[in-house]
């Protein structure tokens, strides 16, 4: 669920302007999962553009408090959300921790890095939601560490049905700055893509695991 439509449109415009989102229906990207995709999202680029990162920071900060109340700790999901998560924590005057994909193999064997006490209220910051699986592994690690995870916020979501089901099964609320629908609407309005390319992008979004360029 997006925080609000104005934020969703503005965020989508920023992401397109800085080429954080690349749309290439005729020459698809290959994701780590093996899926073929006409879209690629690299929100790490946000950190290189002060005006954009400040906007994202401020929108997260005010909407986190509005939706969840002020938490005790902000957690970022490694590695993509560490930078923006730290900015949000700093803006809100809160402690920050980050969550590794898996526990370290040496030293203290930590998966959650930073100071976290049992029972503390945590909001998780993520950069991108596809299926939600890796994001929810971070939530599971925080819960196992004794945190009370109030919810998750992310910059962008592809809006897959499987992600919605995964978050529902994990009993976790997800709010995003923008989403696939708002991105496509803006991309067409601003002529980043043609109407024909829009149809291809919508077709992919309906069945990303089986989509091919021929389809």
TrEMBL record:
Enzyme class: transferase
Keywords for the protein's UniProt record, in alphabetical order: Glycosyltransferase, Magnesium, Pyrimidine biosynthesis, Transferase
InterPro entries, sorted: OPRT, Or_phspho_trans_dom, PRTase-like, PRTase_dom
UniProt GO BP: 'de novo' UMP biosynthetic process; pyrimidine nucleobase biosynthetic process
GO molecular function, one term: orotate phosphoribosyltransferase activity
Residues annotated for orotate binding in this entry: 130
Pfam families: Pribosyltran
Catalytic activity: orotidine 5'-phosphate + diphosphate = orotate + 5-phospho-alpha-D-ribose 1-diphosphate
Pathway of action: Pyrimidine metabolism; UMP biosynthesis via de novo pathway; UMP from orotate: step 1/2
Binding of 5-phospho-alpha-D-ribose 1-diphosphate, residues: 100, 104, 106, 126-134
Keyword Signal in annotation: no
This enzyme's EC code(s): 2.4.2.10
Cofactor: Mg(2+)
Domain Phosphoribosyltransferase: 59-155
Assembly description: Homodimer.
Its biological purpose: Catalyzes the transfer of a ribosyl phosphate group from 5-phosphoribose 1-diphosphate to orotate, leading to the formation of orotidine monophosphate (OMP).
NCBIfam families registered for this protein in UniProt: pyrE
PANTHER family: OROTATE PHOSPHORIBOSYLTRANSFERASE, URIDINE 5'-MONOPHOSPHATE SYNTHASE
Similarity remark: Belongs to the purine/pyrimidine phosphoribosyltransferase family. PyrE subfamily.
Protein name stated in the entry: Orotate phosphoribosyltransferase
Species this protein is from: Flavobacterium sandaracinum
Underlying gene: pyrE
């Amino acid at each position: 669920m997006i925080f609000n439509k104005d934020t969703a449109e503005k965020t989508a415009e920023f992401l397109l302007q800085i080429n954080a989102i690349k749309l290439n229906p005729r020459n698809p990207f290959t994701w780590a999962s093996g899926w073929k995709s006409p879209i690629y999202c690299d929100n790490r680029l946000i950190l290189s553009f002060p005006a954009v990162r400040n906007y994202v920071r401020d929108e997260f900060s005010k909407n986190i408090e509005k939706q969840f109340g002020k938490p005790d700790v902000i957690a970022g999901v490694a590695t993509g959300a560490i930078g923006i998560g730290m900015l949000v924590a700093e803006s809100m005057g809160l402690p920050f921790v980050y969550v590794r994909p898996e526990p370290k193999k040496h030293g203290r064997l930590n998966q959650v890095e930073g100071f976290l006490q049992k029972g503390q209220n945590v909001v998780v910051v993520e950069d991108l939601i596809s299926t939600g699986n890796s994001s929810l592994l971070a939530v599971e690690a925080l819960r196992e560490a004794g945190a009370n995870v109030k919810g998750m916020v992310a910059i962008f979501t592809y809006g897959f049905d499987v992600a919605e089901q995964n978050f529902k099964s994990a009993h976790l609320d997800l709010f995003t700055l923008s989403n696939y629908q708002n991105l496509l609407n803006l991309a067409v309005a601003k002529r980043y893509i043609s109407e024909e390319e829009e149809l291809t992008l919508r077709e992919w979004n309906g069945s990303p695991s089986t989509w091919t360029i021929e389809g």
